[in-house]
Amino acid sequence: MVKKTASEPSPNRRIWDAVEQTDPRYTKKVTLGRSFTAIDPYRQIERATEVFGPVGEGWGYDIVRSFVTDATNQYVVEVRMWHGNPENAFMQCGQAGLFIDRKQERPDADFAKKAVTDAVTKCLSILGFNADIFLGKFEDNKYVQEMEQKFEGEEKATEQKDKRSSNALTFANDLVEILKQTERLEEKLEAILKRAVPLKTIRNYPDCVLIIEEAINAYVLSQYKQVLGRVSDRDAFYTLLETWQPLRLAITDISPRLRDDMVVIEDELSSSYPSTDVKE
What we know:
Elements: H1 14-19, E1 27-31, E2 35-39, H2 41-52, E3 59-68, E4 74-83, E5 85-97, H3 111-127, H4 131-134, H5 141-181, H6 185-194, H7 196-201, H8 206-229, H9 234-243, H10 245-254, H11 256-270
Antiparallel strand pairs: 1-2, 3-4, 4-5
């Protein structure tokens, strides 16, 4: 039996490790007899949705029962939460006061909502959501600074990724317009070759690859087949293929599927010549 090393993550912590750290932007200091850090409950719901899926599909909760305590006038709800499927369930209680003042003269119209929110937060905390808050790490200013730097860096990385994706999409759409507007195959070849280097990076963006694949199929390969089909003999056919080798390589860099489409066209046309010799 192979023993796990200390550095290997435990599968039992897969959810906990993914959600335990908290972005300080979604916290606030609360003083109710004592000072503590609170997490924005809607941020917790958003994170649960990111991890499990939409409420009602990937996770959810039901109110099992509710009651009011006579001694303290607290409204208590028992919530049953599940994730993955309804069988993965567990329960926690939440509570809220019926009044917003100590003399208990001013009723709190939101006591039920507050109690349910409290229960949901407690349920999610059991799964590890924002565990660093509940473990008291947010009382350490150094730790809070580390989290600020971490999440600020992640946000910048996401912004940069989104910007690159947007630029790639713009580049793809611009190329499509050029391929639409140019008439001669040689002009289309030139347009593709001029953009050979950035076209290689397009492969990182599947949506952009699809846009370019459709455009090249519609505006380049159909014309490619027509031009090759007008060649009178086998030698001229392969001479033309060699002339267009840069185009073939560029298209291969964009999408192997496009290269396969080109090969199908070439094989279909080359088979129409009497000779069976194949020139590489």
